[in-house]
Design goal:
The chain is α/β, with parallel strands linked by helices. The chain has 15 helices and 17 strands. The strands form 4 sheets. The chain has a 5-stranded antiparallel β-sheet with strand order 2-1-5-4-3. Strands 7-9-10-12-11 form a 5-stranded mixed β-sheet, covered by helices on one side. The structure holds adenosine-5'-diphosphate.
């Protein structure tokens, strides 16, 4: 049989509630308050009875509260907590605190009453604010990290530019050809420099991915194209190591995946170059492909190389971990697989491996299948290099090149490089201001512009060239050690026709110049 409560029992029940409960009449006068009200507001319940509810409302909100109260009385309804509005209450000492309030009308013999349950949410609000503050701090730290990386990359690439550039220049110089032994030494310098550059790029790439600064754009990609591309890129290295690369036939249902093509190639290149690096002379590397379920395709790179001991397995995908190769002679950084894993995840895929020491390894990436057609790019025509050499032809008119660069080593490098070509006059300026004067005076055929300059930046100088009728048509090639995507964006916006990242490849500079000169001669 249900128990029947007396009115004191109800009051005791309300007193035990964890929230303040306040009942007001139609005029907004308090008729009841529970014990918890005293803890929250500093008023004893009996002190509150008879006072207007506004005594619990901050002074600054009295006006609006008054209006809301009359509207509620005119059409009362149950209004639950957590309506999303931020509400504030006032303690006896005048201090404010954030609250959530639920309202419900009580129709009684004494007329309409409104009961409100008031919850102190200070702690939650405080936690949210703390979280917001920490998030802002983390965002700022991330931004600072990006900024640091950008300038670090600049600082590291600039000296490397001189090292690699001069070494390449020495190697290709026709005027002062090197002997066999000297060429061998130069090859060591170039190899070391390129290794360092690769390391800088990998560290930057990983840091950028971790900072969430990598844009992935997926599209249907032909698996066969990518496997063929990776295979031909790796074939020379494999051949040198005495390793054969094989492509297993593709199953019909594993033709296309949804991927960011460049990043997909990067992952397979990582797997495949490891397979060769950690392979055995006379061994083989096999690319295989299979559908694992209805929605994913697994691309595997299988080798019969040295394998990985079981106790090192947990380290394989961790950054800067070389899983037992730290002391070995095989060069590496331990970053490639960490990048591959993150990239696969960003594309909605996964990576994994199986390996046994002494028997070989299988590394795989799984990506979602695509049933759409891909934008098929003809591999041969995309990679075909057209060699045009207007420089070599003595019949062609002379051209003037202005190079704006503050680093003397880079200027010297360009002077040496272009001195190989008799028909080019090179003018150099160490600041954008001087460069602009030179350009206006000589109206050169092409401008090579460094981006980070003392005073006006190369970007601003290029904007100015674009804005003037007289210089608008002059093509500007940007040269910068800044390799962050944002720098590239800015360069494109400013109107560079090409943007080369330092350390630039001598061949790249030449082919960029050739392309521009070809265009202007048409
Ligand atoms: P690293 O630059 O050292 O090659 P990775 O991140 O590419 O870095 O690989 C991490 C580690 O995993 C390597 O140092 C190596 O110990 C191991 N590893 C990767 N691929 C293979 C493979 N195919 N065979 C044997 N060991 C491998």
């Amino acid at each position: 049989m249900p128990i029947s409560f007396r009115s004191e029992d109800y009051a005791a029940l309300l007193d035990g509630a964890p929230d303040a409960i306040v009942v007001v009449d139609e005029d907004g006068d308090i008729q009841f308050a529970n014990r918890r009200t005293a803890d929250l507001f500093g008023w004893a319940p009996e002190e509150l009875v008879g006072r207007a509810i506004e005594v619990l409302v901050p002074d600054r909100l009295h006006g609006s509260h008054f209006g809301e109260r009359s509207r509620y009385i005119a059409s009362p309804s149950v209004r639950p907590m957590g309506s999303g509005r931020s509400l504030f209450a006032r303690r006896r000492d005048g201090s404010e605190f954030p609250v959530e309030i639920s309202l419900s009308p009580l129709r009684t013999a004494h007329g309409l009453l409104v009961s409100s349950i008031i919850r102190d949410v200070s702690e939650r609000v405080h936690r949210e604010e703390e979280l917001k503050r920490l998030r802002a701090l983390a965002d700022a730290a991330n931004a600072a990290k990006s900024e640091f990386l950008s300038s670090m990359s600049h600082e590291l690439r600039t000296p490397l530019n001189a090292v690699l550039g001069f070494a390449q220049l020495l190697r290709r110089s026709r005027k002062n050809p090197l002997d066999e032994q000297q060429r061998g030494m130069i090859d060591h310098i170039v190899k070391g420099g390129e290794h360092l550059l690769h390391l800088i790029d990998e560290v930057l790439d990983l840091a950028r991915i971790e900072a969430g600064g990598v844009a992935i754009s997926t599209e249907p990609v032909e698996v066969a194209d990518v496997l063929t591309e990776v295979r031909s890129a790796l074939e020379p290295v494999a051949a040198r190591a005495g390793i054969a690369i094989e492509l297993a036939p593709l199953p019909a249902d594993a033709r296309r995946v949804m991927a960011d093509r460049t990043r997909f190639v990067q992952i397979l290149m990582n797997f495949a170059s490891n397979a060769v690096k950690y392979g055995r002379p006379g061994g083989r590397v096999r690319f295989a492909c299979a559908t694992t379920n209805a929605v994913d395709v697994r691309m595997s790179v299988i080798d019969d190389g040295i394998g990985i001991p079981v106790d090192k397995h947990p380290l394989v995908f961790l950054p800067f971990q070389r899983a037992g190769q730290e002391m070995g002679t095989i060069e590496g950084t331990g970053i490639g697989l960490a990048i591959s894993k993150r990239l696969a995840e960003l594309m909605g895929g996964r990576v994994g491996f199986a390996s046994e020491a002494g028997h070989g390894s299988e590394f795989w990436v799984e990506l979602p299948t695509s049933d759409q057609d891909s934008h098929h790019v003809d591999g041969a025509s995309a990679s075909a290099v057209r060699r045009v050499s207007p420089f070599a032809d003595g019949e062609l008119p002379r051209v003037t090149v202005v190079y704006v660069e503050d680093n003397p080593a880079n200027v010297e490098l360009m002077v040496q490089l272009l001195s190989e070509f008799d028909r080019i006059d090179l003018l150099t300026a160490a600041t954008a201001e001087v460069g602009l004067d030179l350009i206006r005076e000589h109206l050169p055929t092409v401008v090579l512009m460094d981006i980070n300059l003392p005073g006006m930046s190369g970007i601003e100088a290029t904007r100015r060239l674009r804005a003037s009728e007289e210089t608008r048509h002059i093509p500007v090639i940007g040269l910068s050690a800044a390799a962050m995507p944002r720098d590239r964006e800015l360069a494109v916006e400013a109107g560079f026709i090409r943007y080369l990242t330092k350390p630039f490849d001598v061949e790249d500079v030449i082919s960029a110049l050739e392309a521009v000169l070809k265009r202007t001669e048409r």
